[in-house]
Structure formats: C-alpha cells, structure tokens
C-alpha cells in the first residue's frame, strides 16, 4: 500500500491554488471534466510528485462547504518555519497558531482547511513569533 493523495473540495480555485503555491506546492496535473462539471487539480511539493499530492476538487456549480475543521489537517515539513510563516503573512494569510516554539504553526486555506507546518527539529524561539497570540481555532 502507498499513500497517493488527500482530496479537499474548494470553492475558489484560484485562491486555493495561490495559497498552496505560497506553501511551496506546484501543480503537477489537471483534469477538467465537462460532463461532470468539475476540475481536479493535483499539487505536490518538489520531489513528492506522484507520491504525496493534494487533490483540489472544484465543482463548477456553486456549492457551500462547511466543516473544514472537521477534516483535520494536512501537514508539511518546511525548511524554515519562520521564513515560511513570514512569506504567508506578507501575502495576507493569517497565522492561526504562530511558531512560538520554532517547530510548529497552523494556517488555514481559503476554505478553512487547517494546514500544519512543521520545522525539522526546532529553531530557537524568535520574536515576533514568541509573543504572537493564537488567532481563532487551528
């Protein structure tokens, strides 16, 4: 058995793709299904293509998705948690659980899916992250 991908439904495809690209994922393939009126976009971190992908499912007809927190979360190891969080903040993404410990942070996709960011090991605690409060649930 081998892990293939995690699928999440998204309401704003462009915003979702931008979000995952900010995390460092790249689109590896796309399927547009005219008959079913949906698109599947597969994204992966460099080197994970075909192994550990995120499938964004976008239904062309408007739907409201709730319960993003019920999904749980996706988790990604990052090279520098502080630089990653700063890049996301600079793009207007809210850091729901800042990396106060130099090891873990949580952010959310435009559809409210939690994303856990993990540093390999831990960086020394650094401001402004140490004193930054949690924002909402993560």
The tally of helices reads 3
- Provide the β-strand percentage band: 25-35%
What coarse outline follows from CA principal-axis ratios?
globular
**Rg (CA only):** 16 Å
How many structural domains in the coordinates? 2
Domain VOC: 2-120
GO cellular component, one term: cytoplasm
Pfam family, one: Glyoxalase
Organism: Sphingomonas yabuuchiae
How does this model look, in words?
- The chain has helices at 13-23, 68-71, 81-90; strands at 5-9, 26-33, 38-44, 53-59, 73-78, 95-97, 104-108, 114-119.
- It is an alpha/beta fold.
- It has 2 domains: 5-59, 2,3-Dihydroxybiphenyl 1,2-Dioxygenase, domain 1 (Roll); 68-119, 2,3-Dihydroxybiphenyl 1,2-Dioxygenase, domain 1, CATH 3.10.180.
- The strands form 2 sheets. The protein has a 4-stranded mixed beta sheet with strand order 1-4-3-2, with helices on one face. The chain has a 4-stranded mixed beta sheet with strand order 5-8-7-6.
- Keywords: Lyase.
- Residues 2-120 form the VOC domain.
- GO terms for molecular function: lactoylglutathione lyase activity.
- This is Aldoketomutase.
Can I get a quick summary?
With about 140 residues, the protein is α/β, with parallel strands linked by helices. About 20% of the residues lie in helices and about 35% in strands. Strand 7 and strand 8 form a beta hairpin.
Secondary structure elements and pairings:
Layout: E1 5-9, H1 13-23, E2 26-33, E3 38-44, E4 53-59, H2 68-71, E5 73-78, H3 81-90, E6 95-97, E7 104-108, E8 114-119
Parallel strand pairs: 1-4, 5-8
Antiparallel strand pairs: 2-3, 3-4, 6-7, 7-8
InterPro entries: Glyas_Bleomycin-R_OHBP_Dase (IPR029068), Glyas_Fos-R_dOase_dom (IPR004360), VOC_core (IPR037523)
GO molecular function: lactoylglutathione lyase activity
Organism: Sphingomonas yabuuchiae
């Amino acid at each position: 058995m081998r892990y293939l991908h995690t699928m999440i439904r998204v309401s704003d495809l462009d915003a979702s793709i931008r979000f995952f690209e900010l995390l460092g994922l790249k689109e590896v393939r796309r399927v547009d299904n005219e008959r079913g009126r949906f698109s599947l976009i597969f994204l992966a971190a460099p080197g994970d293509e075909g192994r550990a992908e995120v499938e964004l499912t976008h239904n062309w007809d408007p739907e409201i998705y709730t319960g993003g927190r019920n999904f749980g979360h996706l988790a990604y190891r990052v090279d520098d948690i502080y630089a990653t969080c700063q890049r996301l903040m600079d793009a207007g993404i809210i850091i729901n659980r800042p990396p106060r410990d130099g090891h873990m942070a949580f952010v959310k996709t435009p559809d409210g899916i939690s994303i856990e960011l993990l540093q390999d090991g831990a960086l020394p605690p650094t401001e402004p992250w140490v004193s930054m409060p949690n924002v909402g649930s993560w």
